[in-house]
Design goal:
Length: about 150
């Protein structure tokens, strides 16, 4: 991973276009990153929101991280899809990850929260898109009256 070479990490990425917005944009980004980094097609997978965190990078840039849980499709095998971003992949239990010397300090608590969430509730289907707000410039205008 470019951001943390030699460390364990999670699939992740950024919104690529400044114009990306609206319902489902974060879920679409998570699905795109899973395909780009580990070759998983999550189009039909239910994503469960886990948490959001605001932090400042070592370079002093503010970032927001949004995390989702998803069950990997049983009929797909993850692969290193982009060796420039990922050198290897594997599955670890939270305990195995915490014991690995390559594990960054933020990962064990995040995995523990994810495991608690996973045990509490099954994944729900993705939320239905919401209609645009009335003040949204992309929202349709009021309907024209019709003649009786």
């Amino acid at each position: 991973m470019d951001d943390a070479p030699g460390q364990l990490g999670l699939v992740g990425g950024h919104l690529e276009h400044q114009g990306d917005s609206g319902p489902g944009v974060l879920e679409a980004t998570a699905r795109r990153e899973a395909a780009e980094e580990v070759g998983l097609d999550l189009a039909d997978a239910a994503l469960t929101y886990l948490e959001s965190e605001v932090f400042t990078t070592d370079a002093g840039v503010g970032q927001v991280t949004v995390s989702f849980l998803v069950a990997a499709p049983e009929d797909q095998e993850p692969v290193v899809a982009d060796p420039a971003e990922l050198t290897a992949l594997g599955w670890w239990t939270p305990g195995e990850a915490a014991a690995d010397p390559r594990c960054p300090p933020w990962l064990p608590p995040m995995l523990a929260r994810a495991e608690l969430r996973r045990r509490r509730a099954p994944a729900a289907p993705p939320p239905a898109p919401r209609p645009p707000a009335a003040d949204d410039p992309a929202a349709p205008g009021p309907a024209a009256p019709t003649a009786p």
